[in-house]
């Protein structure tokens, strides 16, 4: 599970580091704009293999890479396993499972929370049912679950396992209260997310969708999801130190690593994942090695899937018939992300909880797998960066890149397409019908053309800083990297979606959403100044009146403008307080902490009074003009009115006054 700006049980390594770095740079240019033939830039020098894939070499590389990094990054513990040619090449533990107790991480016995790596195990369970003919990949899942979910379009297991059911994101219930039992069915039927895209058309990572796939397993098998997986996946694969159970059973509870923000902080409680199939697995590095071997066709226990089914899981689940030109980029398999690099097929999945950060990758054609997990986020997101370093370093060391394919697109077309890509974007994986819709425009991804025919994307959740160049029509490769962008355009040739990841894509930020946050901010500044001027003005008026009385002057009577001025200030103060409460709401919700519904209603009430201030501001401006209070008063009233207008635009566009406060 993964929430764009917060704690997550997530997906790919690129996504993970993006949350730490929050940046993106895309596309950089080559060739003269007027050239008739393609003139690609020189390909980057490919990494050269510097090690042989043996236990001694991998252990030596890990010893040079991880211990110093976790110490300087203040990461409590790490665990790694590598498989190759049908055997566990190495399984390692680094740092401490319990900082206070000084317990070292043991790859054989220490359990880590793997976050969304769990989703591959869930997909494996689903595919067992497919293999036995008990479910079909292309049948409406309502036939299996009996859940009457409010979705406009039918959803299939193929959609759920490829993150294309069309659901928006949900933050509530992502991480439950410590020790509180989780009810999977209840989690699915209580406030389900809206279906905002037609299934199969738009990659948009969905924790809810994967959890629904897990519930299909529960409904069809007639046993709790956790029990089915334990009996049919984990135990047969020899994963005797792994479980989806929350809390952990007695035999495993004493062996789970503590999770920490940093190794200097106190540990956080055992995280209760609200939708277990999406991210509740706890496992050891050695058990995850056994899982990798099972998926590479070398089970250490019983076979959990046939060769044909394992192959099917790694193949693209959807094609151009629904994805359009996005099919030219990375595509989800059935549970697996396409993480191919260096000209080799690679599938994988990563995961993050509040404290744990993991990733698993398979190189099927090379019979190799790598699993890594950290038990702390570390200083300045050090675990995200180190995880990427391990994944990239392993690929560069043992499977170096082939020479890059030259561009087949002429320079003029590259420049034209780069200009078409320029603009502001938000992720398709986000909130669209709730007040958390502010998360998109609050951190837009900006694309700008550089060097004539490349594009640079600014920081944004879900996409790393990188430079891409167009190598095929509307297909862009990362310069000096392995990322791929595929662009889908509409009938008019306008950019509709930018696929940058198997389960994630970008869509252009609409004009309304683009101006919503700046409008809200501008309105807030004007109304804050209005609210501050109220007590300041009262003091000034009181001092002035005292002086006038002391001189024996006649104190002017109240004017018809006084009441609308006062009400305007009250409304301004209400708006400012409302936005402050909204800030608290967003911080709380996006950190997965519990939040009382009443707090959201208070934020809405104060904001509503602020929006109604527009009417009072009109009254005040009219009164100022009619009573001829002077150009300064009239101008001030006009500016305040504009402040209320800006507030109203932002509040309306960002759904701050929506009666539905689910999130």
Automatic annotation (TrEMBL):
Database matches in Gene3D superfamilies: DD-peptidase/beta-lactamase superfamily (3.40.710.10)
Signal peptide (residue range): 1-35
Membrane spanning stretches: 515-540, 570-592, 598-619, 631-651
Pfam family, one: Beta-lactamase
Domain Beta-lactamase-related: from-to ranges: 62-383
Keywords: Membrane, Signal, Transmembrane, Transmembrane helix
Name this polypeptide is given: Beta-lactamase family protein
Organism of provenance: Actinotalea soli
């Amino acid at each position: 599970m993964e929430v764009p700006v917060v704690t997550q049980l997530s997906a790919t390594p690129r996504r993970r580091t993006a949350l730490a770095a929050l940046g993106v740079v895309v596309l950089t240019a080559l060739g003269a704009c007027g050239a008739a033939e393609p003139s690609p830039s020189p390909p980057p020098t490919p990494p050269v293999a510097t090690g042989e894939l043996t236990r001694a070499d991998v252990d030596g590389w890990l010893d040079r890479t991880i211990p110093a990094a976790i110490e300087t990054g203040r990461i409590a513990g790490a665990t790694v396993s590598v498989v190759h040619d049908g055997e566990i090449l190495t399984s390692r533990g680094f740092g401490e499972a319990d900082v206070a107790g000084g317990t070292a991480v043991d790859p054989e016995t220490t359990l880590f929370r793997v976050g969304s790596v769990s989703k591959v195990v869930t997909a494996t369970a689903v595919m067992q049912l497919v293999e036995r003919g008990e479910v079909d990949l292309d049948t409406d899942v309502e036939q299996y679950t009996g859940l009457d979910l409010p979705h406009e379009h039918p959803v299939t297991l193929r959609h759920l396992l490829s993150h294309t059911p069309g659901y928006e994101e949900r933050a509530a219930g992502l991480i439950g209260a410590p020790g509180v039992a989780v009810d999977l069915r209840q989690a699915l039927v209580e406030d389900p997310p809206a279906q905002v895209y037609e299934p199969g058309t738009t990659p948009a990572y969905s924790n809810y969708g994967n959890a629904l796939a897990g519930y299909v397993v529960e409904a069809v098998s007639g046993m709790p999801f956790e029990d089915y997986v334990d009996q049919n996946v984990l135990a047969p694969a020899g994963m005797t130190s792994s479980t989806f159970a929350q809390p952990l059973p007695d035999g495993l509870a004493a062996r789970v690593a503590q999770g920490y923000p940093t190794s200097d902080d106190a540990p956080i409680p055992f995280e209760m994942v609200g939708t277990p199939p999406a991210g509740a697995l706890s496992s050891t590095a050695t058990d995850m090695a056994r899982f990798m071997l099972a998926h590479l066709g070398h089970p250490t226990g019983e076979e959990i899937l046939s060769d044909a089914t394992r192959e099917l899981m790694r193949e693209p689940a959807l094609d151009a018939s629904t994805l359009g030109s996005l099919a030219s980029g990375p595509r989800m398999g059935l549970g697996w992300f396409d993480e191919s690099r260096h000209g080799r097929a690679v599938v994988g999945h990563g995961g993050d909880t509040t404290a744990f950060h993991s990733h698993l990758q398979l190189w099927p054609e090379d019979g190799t797998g790598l699993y890594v997990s950290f038990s702390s986020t570390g200083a300045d997101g050090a675990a995200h960066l180190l995880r990427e370093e391990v994944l990239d370093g392993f690929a560069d060391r043992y499977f170096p890149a082939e020479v890059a394919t030259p561009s087949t697109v002429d320079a003029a077309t590259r420049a034209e397409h780069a200009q078409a890509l320029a603009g502001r974007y938000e992720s398709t994986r986000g909130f669209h019908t709730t007040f958390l819709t502010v998360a998109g425009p609050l951190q837009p991804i900006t694309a700008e053309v550089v060097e004539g025919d490349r594009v640079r994307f600014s920081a944004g959740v879900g996409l790393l800083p990188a430079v891409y160049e167009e190598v095929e029509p509307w297909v862009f490769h990362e310069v000096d990297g392995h990322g791929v962008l595929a662009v889908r355009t509409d009938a008019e040739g306008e950019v509709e979606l930018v696929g940058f990841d198997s389960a994630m894509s970008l869509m252009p930020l609409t004009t309304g959403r683009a101006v919503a946050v700046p409008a809200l901010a501008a309105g807030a500044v004007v109304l804050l100044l209005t609210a501050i001027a109220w007590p300041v003005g009262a003091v000034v008026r009181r001092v002035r009146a005292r002086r006038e009385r002391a001189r024996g002057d006649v104190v002017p009577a109240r004017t018809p403008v006084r009441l609308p001025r006062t009400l305007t200030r009250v409304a301004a103060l209400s708006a400012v307080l409302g936005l402050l409460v909204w800030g608290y709401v967003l911080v709380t919700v996006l950190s997965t902490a519990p939040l009382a519904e009443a707090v959201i209603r208070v934020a809405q009430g104060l904001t509503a009074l602020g929006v109604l201030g527009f009417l009072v501001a009109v009254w005040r401006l009219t009164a100022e003009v009619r009573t001829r209070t002077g150009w300064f008063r009239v101008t001030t009233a006009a500016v305040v009115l504009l402040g209320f207008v800006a507030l109203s635009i932002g509040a309306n566009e960002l759904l701050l006054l929506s009666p539905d406060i689910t999130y």
